[in-house]
Amino acid sequence: MNRKIGILRGINVGGKRKILMVDLKSTCEKLGLKNVTTYIQSGNLIFNSDKPNSELENELEKAITEKYGFDVPVIVRTEKELENSINNNPFFDKDTDIKQLHLTFLKEKPNMENLEKILTFKYEPDKFQIEDKDAFIFCAEKYHESKLTNNFFEKQLKVGATTRNWKTVMKLSELSKN
């Protein structure tokens, strides 16, 4: 079975849209996912499944809506896809403070017109670069002060998105190898 990473958007933020990780794990197991692990309360899953990513995204979204009564976008990546994302980060090197790095996972690859349009936005000193289904972000200060948010990428690229800091990205990669 393939190792996969599920990233949920917008749960357990500010006491809203609460989902306990033990309940999320149980929901995943009822869907037939194997070796399910969660990481921190923001909705990160690691599990085994041979189903296609898009099918898993739909199943998880539907199960969460049915159980909790609210919609939660889910993005699934394989262990290999996450590893490729880590290796492709143009802002990551040995001298970079990882607190400045974030990865916005895009639900699908944006179309060329929207990609060209988003490249006209400049929010220096913050920077971003889009590769396939990843938006790599470098924040000179704090992420919550940046204009390079999930909403920015969703609005400009017209695709679903959710962001994780680089520490979480690296931990998800580490956990997916266990």
Task: Name the descriptors.
4-stranded antiparallel sheet, Alpha-Beta Plaits, alpha+beta, about 180 residues
Structural notes for this entry:
The protein has 178 residues and is an alpha+beta fold. It folds into 2 domains: 3-79, Alpha-Beta Plaits (2-Layer Sandwich), CATH 3.30.70; 80-176, 2-Layer Sandwich (Alpha-Beta Plaits). The chain has helices spanning 21-30, 53-68, 79-88, 112-118, 150-157, 166-176, and strands at 3-8, 34-39, 44-48, 74-78, 101-106, 127-131, 134-138, 161-165. The strands form 2 sheets. Strands 2-3-1-4 form a 4-stranded antiparallel sheet, with helices on both faces. Strands 6-7-5-8 form a 4-stranded antiparallel sheet. It starts with a strand and ends with a helix. The mean pLDDT is 94. It holds the Pfam family DUF1697. This is DUF1697 domain-containing protein. InterPro entries: DUF1697.
Topology at a glance:
Layout: E1 3-8, H1 21-30, E2 34-39, E3 44-48, H2 53-68, E4 74-78, H3 79-88, E5 101-106, H4 112-118, E6 127-131, E7 134-138, H5 150-157, E8 161-165, H6 166-176
Antiparallel strand pairs: 1-3, 1-4, 2-3, 5-7, 5-8, 6-7
Give a quick precis of the structure.
This protein has 178 residues and is an alpha+beta fold. The protein is 35% helix and 24% strand.
Order of helices and strands: EHEEHEHEHEEHEH
Number of strands: 8
Net shape: globular
Cα-based radius of gyration, to the nearest Å:
16 Å
- Number of spatially distinct domains: 2
CATH level 3 topology of the largest domain: Alpha-Beta Plaits
Query: In whole angstroms, how far apart are the ends?
Result: 13 Å
Number of helices: 6
User: What's the CATH class label of the largest domain?
Assistant: Alpha Beta
Describe the biggest sheet?
4 strands, antiparallel
Global mean pLDDT: 94
Task: Output the strand order for the largest sheet.
Answer: 2-3-1-4
Organism: Oceanihabitans sediminis
Protein name: DUF1697 domain-containing protein
